[in-house]
Design brief:
The protein has 9 helices and 10 strands. It is mainly alpha-helical. Bound molecules: zinc ion (2 copies).
Amino acid sequence: MPSVPALSGWAAQPECPQPRSTGQACGPSMGGLTGSAAWPQPRVLCIPAPPQKSRKGTGMAYLIVFHVIFVLFVWTYWKSVFTLPLQPDKKFHMSYADKERYENEERPEVQRQILVEIARKLPVYTRTGNGAIRFCDRCQLIKPDRCHHCSVCAMCVLKMDHHCPWVNNCVGFSNYKFFLLFLMYSLLYCMYIAATVFKYVIKYWTDELTNGRSKFHVLFLLFVALMFFLSLMFLFGYHCWLVSRNRSTLEAFSAPVFQNGPDKNGFNLGFVKNLQQVFGEEKKLWLLPICAALPGCPYTWRRKGDVPLLPGAARSGASPQPRIPLPRWSSRAGLKCLDAASGP
Ligand SMILES: [Zn+2]
Ligand SMILES: [Zn+2]
């Protein structure tokens, strides 16, 4: 199998450079929302009931399930927020000499040719709508496939999906799994709250319970849980559809352009492989916000053709799905690309 060294290089980002003003407002509101549900819910589940053993046991079971979901919800949210987006490897950046040559050239067609020459050494398969090499003039790099510049983070992000103000982070290659799990556990959290308080709403409605303060908690919980459940349901459903077709949100709006033109299914490898590209190959880890399963999962490659756009990037006898070593990373506090650019 031919090696694909160029894409095996991923740059670590030691610190998050972007301003976080948008999410600074969302963080507390999200925390407040979580707390507003997390505090009254156990109280609601312990609403005064006749001291029967069976009811006590049921209440305890409710509380245990509630806290398991709550921990997963907070854990995935934390990982979505504090996992740094990954930038392209250094080899995608222009060298000093190339940069000087590019900037001193005033003729656009010659500039394009310079980019083509640089990109010959790189495994880039997608182009702009007019057939040019995808180049970020702010980061001064050739964009790898599926990489986009985020104006909020002020950097190019690998497999960028979108910049999410709710997690105050770019959702992309490094944290897309965590983001999806966050949506899923948020849904589950809201659904569980709504389901467990609903019978108490009925009891208040029929005057079986008379505690006025608990009545407010119950109604508030039901309202907030249903409101968020409905809005998250559509978002989660949309992302499930995207994952099943191996598309990012940006690619859903604008199909990636290949040698033969735009192809919205250019990265579609089939349902199972598409899932593996996001969740990893270890199925037992799919529902946990850890990324141990991700290394080795190719994500940029097409199923169809697999023909390089540029003659210099040709890979004779290439397998349709070469395996690309991917980085292992930790949290925002110490994100390290342990493996990434270790290739030649
Ligand atoms: Zn950029
Ligand atoms: Zn961003």
